[in-house]
Amino acid sequence: MKLDYSVDEPLNREPPVDELISSFYTEKGAYDRNHGPIPHLDADSHIVHVDGAVDHKLALSIAQLKYDFKQHDVVCCLQCAGNRRHTMRTLLKEVDGIDWGDGAVMNCKWSGPMLKDILKKAGPKIPGGQKGHVAFASFQTECQDDTWYGGSIELERALRDDADVLLALEMNGEPLPVNNGFPVRVIVPGIAGARSVKWLDRITVQSEESKNFYQTHDYKVLPPDAVDKESASKYWGVTPAIQEMPVNSVIAVPQSGETTKLSPQGTTEIRGYALPSGDGGPVAKVEVSVDDGKTWADAEIVDGLEGRSRWAWVLWKATVKLEKGGGIRIFSRATDVAGQTQCAQPQWNLRGVCYNGYGESRDISVA
């Protein structure tokens, strides 16, 4: 099997955020997040096994996933839990993790069978009174901190008609790119991207969460007194794994440190993206402030209204009046239909995950 990159040097990259918002669908230059090599798999021979607490174990080929189950399209964002980590690191204090900027997110149309349809065929049978989980696993390559990659979600979410959990065979109308999990990956809308396992091998219904390192010892919002690996050790087993992501927004234009020119009317255009919270979408409004949050003005949502997918991002713009000079700061904040509003600044955590302080561009010069 051909492998790209390695355990020691996996592919992790993000696009410039101003390029990222150039289109509603992320069709090129999407972020890559990996904990090991990228495998090139053969779709004709690949099998997804369904086992665990089920009446009927399944072994499904890619052809069966495509032709034996109804196919669905789901438009949703996929976001790394560490998106905007650089902002937490620079505005609050040092964190442990890849220095992601604002571009570790993509918005795509994913196509394939619903996970609930596959599970219903298998027949989950968790004993009464127990909370079931659905664990996803890829055994194709070793990872930096485990011999395989895995994650899990609650069984209740996997079976919900309105949760839209998908086994994606296509991305934006084309077969999944190798980097994005070809030939099949999980897509769990509204949930941290770490649970949307790529190169999917196995789906297991069980009474506990995945035991994989990346479910049990990473991607958690640790309490603030976990300040290093030693002090964090006692919290990994008692801190919940991240599932739903918080409401968020980012200013993509102008970016911090840039110079923007005023129009003859003394205005300039601000642009960015906004994301709903887990189940709270779609985004209802985006606001901007040019006076350190004293007053706010509504931005215009320019893309993402059509279809109003509850899982998708929106692209927005605002025209604001500014005075010429330097050291200017601009904020953005988003609110979704569930009423979740972006906070000014979240609590610091060691892994720098789930940062959703105001979108911010600092040290802007206006000419």
Give an account of the 3D structure.
The chain has 367 residues and is mainly beta. It contains seven helices and 22 strands. It has helices at 17-20, 62-67, 85-91, 115-122, 155-159, 213-216, 229-232; strands spanning 3-4, 38-39, 47-52, 58-61, 71-79, 105-113, 133-138, 149-154, 166-168, 170-171, 174-175, 185-187, 202-206, 248-253, 259-260, 267-275, 283-289, 297-298, 300-303, 314-321, 325-336, 359-366. A five-stranded mixed β-sheet has the order 4-3-13-7-8. Strand 10 and strand 11 form a beta hairpin. The longest helix has 8 residues, at 115-122. The chain is globular and about 70 Å long. The chain starts with a strand and ends with a strand.
Relevant terms:
367 residues, mainly beta, five-stranded mixed β-sheet, 7 helices, 22 strands, 10% helix, 32% strand, globular
Biggest sheet strand line-up: 4-3-13-7-8
Biggest beta-sheet profile: 5 strands, mixed
Catalogue the unreliable spans. Answer: none
The residue-averaged pLDDT reads 96
Indicate the multimeric state.
single chain
Distance between the termini: 55 Å
Count the beta strands: 22
Tell me the fraction of residues in β-strands, as a range: 25-35%
Principal-axes shape call: globular
> Based on helices, strands and strand pairing, what is the structural class?
mainly beta
Tally of helical runs: 7
Give the % helix.
10-25%
H-E order: EHEEEHEHEHEEHEEEEEHHEEEEEEEEE
Cα Rg: 21 Å
